[in-house]
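Reviewers asked in the last cycle whether our approach scales beyond single polypeptides. To address this, we selected a multi-component target totalling 394 residues and predicted its structure end to end. The input consisted of the following lines:
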Amino acid sequence: MSQVTCDLTVSLDGFVAGPHQTMEAPLGAGGERLHRWQFEEQDANAAEIAGILEAGAYIMGRNMFAGPGDGPWPDDWRGWWGEDPPYHAPVFVLTSHAREPLEMQGGTTFHFVTEGIESALARARDAAGGKNIAIAGGASTARQFLAAGLIDELRLHVAPIVLGGGERLLDGVGEVQLEPVEVRGTPLVSHLRYKVG
Amino acid sequence: MSQVTCDLTVSLDGFVAGPHQTMEAPLGAGGERLHRWQFEEQDANAAEIAGILEAGAYIMGRNMFAGPGDGPWPDDWRGWWGEDPPYHAPVFVLTSHAREPLEMQGGTTFHFVTEGIESALARARDAAGGKNIAIAGGASTARQFLAAGLIDELRLHVAPIVLGGGERLLDGVGEVQLEPVEVRGTPLVSHLRYKVG
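The resulting structure, written as structure tokens, was:
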């Protein structure tokens, strides 16, 4: 049975991105430092990186696919990740603008879902083939799934930096029952894994 | 040589106390759940509890000694902790209202410092006899010491709860250099220990 997981990297003050997010700086001011653990410590964090990449389907918000804003995107927008995105699985993008599926190289196909999070989850569950379903972000999408009680495991990767502003993961999420399952760290990140609900 | 340490328990969303702090509920709504790890898991958290209690001197803000507000306190206010407070060492209370030292049982003496954080730190260093100096809180006091670069080790005890509001530790603290030293957890808390500076 698929578990619904959510991996997010946050600063010690709880931000998933710094202030002043733009198309040119989608992680905001200083936000790129959040993810050093994935690039500079790949061996030490191999288990957590594998945990992100092993899902059978992904769900993401519109902004994670296309950047800040809420209008329709240009039809030739193909995501941030080039022609061979790292997902290698179906990715369901929450949006209010319908669009034909977009098949990329390496097994990634972006599907555009206009019927909301429960519909996206049902489609992802069908597509995942029993593997996990990963809520890939951004923060507001993760928050919606958390608030709806639809996440089984929240995996926070806490970078040892203070961003001082930006988008917070947990603001307004309401009551959430969390049980620590594992905690582990490296010089660039502390991994906090929680069972939810 | 004394190290300056700061142990604080925070919710997963970064609050040291819940919303609506009052004299009757100094930890705010839901805030008492932050500290379950110290009372319900004493054996599992013995090292961290000892780390808090081994200091040779403590520094705390006015509100931690006397509750919310900024006026003078009644001269007969003797803190929250009864006649034998858990510190068993000199405690320097930052305040704008001078007062004679208050000697309690068990080795705790409250000294009232009106000259600011650096003066309090100098007096605490003299009193600590080479043991650590603990910044005991609350959040705004910890933030002042952090922002001034005066803390050597920040020990965050992250409770697996979402408070949704209250007083945040790191808001407005500015740039802080943090290096994770140790991370460890129990069902009721995740301990994140950082070297600062």
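Residues 4-18+28-67+94-191 of chain A form a domain with the Dihydrofolate Reductase, subunit A fold (CATH 3.40.430.10). We regard this as preliminary and will revisit it once experimental data from Aim 1 are available.
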